[in-house]
Amino acid sequence: MDYRDRMKNRPRASLGRILHDLGTTVLDVAASPGSLDAEVTGVHIYDPLDELIVPSGAILLAVGVQGADDICALLARAPHATGMVVKLPVDVDERVRAAVLETGVAVLGLTRAASWAQVAALLRSLLAEGDLAEPGEGAYGDLFSLANAVCALLDAPVTIEDRSSRVLAFSGRQDETDPGRVETVLGLQVPERYLRQLDAQGVFKRLYQSHEPIHIELDDDDIVNRAAMAVRVGDEILGSIWAVVHEPLSPQRQRALTDAAKIVALQLLRERAGADTQRRLRADLLSTVLAGGSDAAEAAGRLGIATTRLCVLAAQLAGVPADPAQGESDRQRFCDALALHVAAIHPKAAEALVGSVAYAVLPLAAGGDEEARAVRVAESFLARVGPRHAANIGVGRLALSLAQVARSRAADDRALRVLRAGGTAGRAAGYTEVHFESLLLQVADVAAAEDQAPTGPYQRLLDHDAEHGTELAATLGAYLDAFGDVNQAAARVHVHANTFRYRLKRLVEISGLDLSDPDARLTVMLQMRIFGRQH
After folding, report:
1. Considering the entire predicted model, what is its pTM?
2. Where is the PucR C-terminal helix-turn-helix domain (predicted)?
3. CB-based contacts of 347, cutoff 8 Å, min separation 6
């Protein structure tokens, strides 16, 4: 089955199924138009400062929206959405109910304990290709269905987690658990304090050494006991299944959990292979779009970005990892985080890891400040991942057609290179911001390719420094950097002002440089930038 067939035949994510999987712990229906069978196609975050463009079938996260008046106004502006999420308590009156019936958009209430970032991540994970199946399509079609099936077998709420205790899927009935499990589901990650507690009690060692389910009693009165089973293929641990239980599992339920772990292992292997294939496909398609040419339009269509007003972001982790395998894993996680971030902003964004650079093509609404908006998107992403990933992002020029995407990619590659050359981390820069520095790097490339060397006064200074061990070139650089302020320049090189004046007189005599000539100053400054300040 090719890519088009998979996209055509993928399981449909209905609003009702999403609510069923999340449960009332996270989302609840505040006002419904009736049936919740409408298809959900993506997640869109409302920003009052941006133009509101909500694609058909999207779930709109109404950040900061409160009161019946604001809810009605937003429903009128987004009549093609499937649902709108508002933080609890939701002010539902007759006007809101009438607007919901008129537009067909369900209003959902989000628990106060959840952050918007968490609910966006939850919804995105549920909407990922292949992650949802309609009820009745088979118990083992995906991890969420598997979690629900194990929940029914054990009569206990279940999570399926990877080796890093990140939640891959969870069953219903999480509202019957404890605060630790609720926090885990909301954050899609076991909180650090519980991980330390589990590790201190040797739980993970027991779990990964055992081929049978283990019973866990934590030293915490607020936490219900757990039953856990490692998910493995041969000697490789893929993850684990965790059930909230009030007493040890019976032998029958232990066998059910053991059998379920084998099925989960197969599903994880399938998903890992499918994810790798999908990533390679997306990387190939996006590489084709970024390169331009005759195949770019078809590739853009398959990615869903065949539109105008596009901007390319190039993101790269700073530093070189000592372990190449760990570096590749870090880059892929970084790219996945970027994908989640840009998709929450625009459902038609496309991203892929190409080499060591994570590229994202971001559609932008007209507004006249597209590059500045793209830079803000990049800065907000860096602020979010900063504690985990030190990275830089270059932002290219606006592309008004697919033919200009390659130009935008070249521009953000240059912006990224400027940031890398400056030794910075955690910074985003638009191409126009670093345009001149980019031009200097290009000129330096040409000079290096043609094996060119400094000439004129600068070359004579470098030769004199090399022969006599002096630092006249550094003296000249400090003088130019200080705009001719001798006292400031002398302080920069840590010498007395009179000593600096003497060195300045000597360098003029040796080089023949006329410091009163602006063209001569510009020439030597450019040579210093292009060839570097050699000592």
Report:
1. 0.51
2. 472-530
3. 41, 42, 43, 44, 55, 58
